[in-house]
Design a protein that fits this description.
The chain is of the alpha/beta class and 347 residues long. Helices cover 37% and strands 18% of the residues.
């Protein structure tokens, strides 16, 4: 777990932050607590640092727990002991929203912050690998197309045009939003390259999910935790190994690792922004509306975030791909309006 704690003085801690009227809503001093995605973590910490410099009466604590674990903490309840916000590298699920509502956090606000590209990386010392979503699926799925345990050992085993290099993929754990994105954007699309798998989804959704998203447990796919900087180090040191992480970490480490081409497309700001890159995905910040009366600093923090995520802003320089056109306008408007989620829109 990674954590950033304010080095600036905290004037006061709030003792309550319920949405029913209790708490010290008029205080300008607060401690904001944010958990969640390791992909979004660098962007939120950058905003937190800038926000604290401008607001010395406020402390912002950001923890990298992974999206799934972060949402679980966020949905644990309402009050000072629970997070105010959660970073997420995929949209909140209906089941997660229901868990929030069950503990009193019914006023959940979704704020899209930008776009990221789920990226496969390899060492700059390795021979370039060019794959398709089907190749990736065949390499790391536990039971490709439901035809039995995966026995492929090299990339050539899944596609004769690929090199006879041992398959070794360092990827995110099940609690990570990046793992969910890998399943949705890459593995499921690769699985559904077989028309029978598309038909299976209509007939048996549970079996479809098992065949299309379950990964190998024989050492070919290795859960590398939530420390993306460590993952970069491991991939750099072991040519032939492939890592899975967010585009921003690739951008920061281009002198050490490079992207793997997927379906003839490399991840760049342009291909991610226009969604032509297969791994393009939106990133989010979820806010607990019940805490906003007690902690007015939350709204100011979001305003700072919106300023930094804009095109040409500080976060673009750190690897966040900004929204364009109508999506940019909608994100900016939501950062001000803070309209709660409609549970009916969730999956």
């Amino acid at each position: 777990m990674k954590k950033i704690a304010s080095a600036l003085p905290l004037a006061a801690l709030l003792t309550a932050c319920g949405g029913s009227g209790g708490g010290s809503g008029g205080s300008s001093a607060a401690q904001l607590k944010i958990v969640g995605s390791s992909t979004v973590y660098p962007f939120t910490t950058a905003v937190a640092e800038a926000f604290q410099r401008a607001n010395p009466g406020t402390s912002v604590i950001v923890e990298s727990t992974g999206t799934g674990s972060g949402v679980k903490l966020f949905c644990g309840g309402v009050g000072e002991q629970h997070p105010d916000m959660v970073n997420a590298s995929r949209a909140m699920k209906k089941s997660e929203y229901d868990a929030c509502a069950a503990t009193g956090a019914r006023n959940v606000i979704e704020v899209p912050i930008g776009i990221d590209g789920l990226t496969l990386i390899e060492s700059n010392k390795a021979a370039p690998l060019k794959v398709t979503v089907a190749d990736i699926y065949k390499a790391i799925a536990a039971n490709p197309f439901g035809k039995g345990a995966n026995r492929a050992q090299t990339w050539r085993d899944v596609n004769p045009s690929l090199p006879a290099v041992k398959i070794r993929v360092l990827g995110p754990p099940p609690t990570s939003g990046t793992r969910d994105s890998l399943a949705e954007l890459i593995l499921t699309k690769g699985c559904e390259s077989d028309p029978a798998m598309k038909e299976l989804k209509k007939a048996d959704e549970a079996k479809h999910k098992d065949f299309c998203t379950k990964v190998r447990e024989d050492g070919v796919y290795v859960e590398a935790g939530e420390n993306d900087n460590l993952l970069v180090q491991k991939v750099e040191a072991d040519p032939g190994t492939v890592g899975v992480l967010g585009y921003s970490f690739l951008a920061e480490n281009a002198d050490r690792v490079r992207p793997v081409e997927i379906g003839g497309v490399l991840p760049t700001e342009a291909t991610i922004q226009d969604l032509s890159y297969p791994g393009a995905r939106k990133l989010y910040l979820y806010v607990k509306g019940e805490h906003m009366t007690a902690k007015p600093a939350i709204k100011n923090f979001l305003a700072e975030y919106a300023k930094q995520w804009a095109s040409g802003g500080a976060l673009e320089k750190r690897g966040l791909v900004p929204f364009a056109g109508a999506e940019a306008q909608a994100a900016a408007a939501q950062a001000t309006a803070l309209k709660p989620l409609d549970a009916a829109t969730l999956k």
